[in-house]
What we know:
With 462 residues, the chain is an alpha/beta fold. It has 14 helices and 22 strands. It binds zinc ion (ZN). Zinc ion binds at residues 61, 63, 66, 161, 187. Zinc ion (ZN) binds at residues 61, 63, 66, 161, 187.
Amino acid sequence: xxxxxxxxxxxxxxxxxxxxxxxxxxxxxxxxxxxxxxxxxxxxxxxxxxxxxxxxxxxxxxxxxxxxxxxxxxxxxxxxxxxxxxxxxxxxxxxxxxxxxxxxxxxxxxxxxxxxxxxxxxxxxxxxxxxxxxxxxxxxxxxxxxxxxxxxxxxxxxxxxxxxxxxxxxxxxxxxxxxxxxxxxxxxxxxxxxxxxxxxxxxxxxxxxxxxxxxxxxxxxxxxxxxxxxxxxxxxxxxxxxxxxxxxxxxxxxxxxxxxxxxxxxxxxxxxxxxxxxxxxxxxxxxxxxxxxxxxxxxxxxxxxxxxxxxxxxxxxxxxxxxxxxxxxxxxxxxxxxxxxxxxxxxxxxxxxxxxxxxxxxxxxxxxxxxxxxxxxxxxxxxxxxxxxxxxxxxxxxxxxxxxxxxxxxxxxxxxxxxxxxxxxxxxxxxxxxxxxxxxxxxxxxxxxxxxxxxxxxxxxx
Length: 462
Ligand SMILES: [Zn+2]
């Protein structure tokens, strides 16, 4: 079997691995390149294998950097099955149309501003392509062996990380009736975080493709609940509104869970919370609905008829009219809105209104990439430009670290610990190169493994 790294080779986005076996070909993950323009341009590069001749796609999870190229693939004539877990399929029904909407919006904006190289600027895909991709989804339960092709089968293993996330174990027949197992870690989740069940340990395989996003780092050892409680209390004392920019998938639900838990324990007062993100509202409903994904505590709460991520003090504002009503509220109150790095979405309206008020607080709860408004605010800029207008920053800007959907290096070692056998080949993907190198050294020191770190476009025979 041949494997070509079409994404997440010495970088963290665009996850896509082309598998070729005799006449058969498939992709494991089908992600979009995100971030710097040089990366995003790769989304326009033709695949080395025509999309219309691909037989199937297997997805580890719904994050756009693992799934967002699907509409583009459909647009290029791909019509095979896309295997994923049921929760991943449900999330994709929310995320892919939104991704298409963003593509169309960006093209419209580029045409208006005249900065595109294409004349006119074109979206990578449109809503119709996203809908075509959604029709190809084939949900498969965790743990069920499924034939991908005669001689190749796969199954999903629970991976925590986000709702529906999985690792993929793939077995192919080789000469002499033997089978060769390739294990794709996908994005590895964390232990002891709320709502979702923990990752299933790596069982062992012939080949292991493992991510290394946090291959060189440990998460903040402080309990994020305590940091959150301190900062919420300080914000309440200031008397204004607490704005929290948060990713709609997972971070929003984790936050809601923790805020509820802190209020129940009496560590923070119960104040109104507003969830002002149409996507966040939909994904929170999905996080509530997929009970098979829940950990013991979440199940218990639901059995007691109380939903920690939809508590009584939570209000939701699906329409823009509802959202505008939030402009009149006074503190203390919490508004959670997307996007998490303040790059777009409704959070911008709230920032424009609340940043000039010294009683208000803006709390960032995730990584802020370079070049984003979130990063500029965290770095203490005194004014930021929003919708073409300079806004003075007088609100308190704070950050809660330690909230992440990715395992850190210690947690990845825990994930590997219970294996029944060692892989004979280890391939490190999905990480910045320095993080991957550090992780390769850790794997060598702790487990005696030698690993490879392929570049984009590298092909290997497994
Ligand atoms: Zn992910």
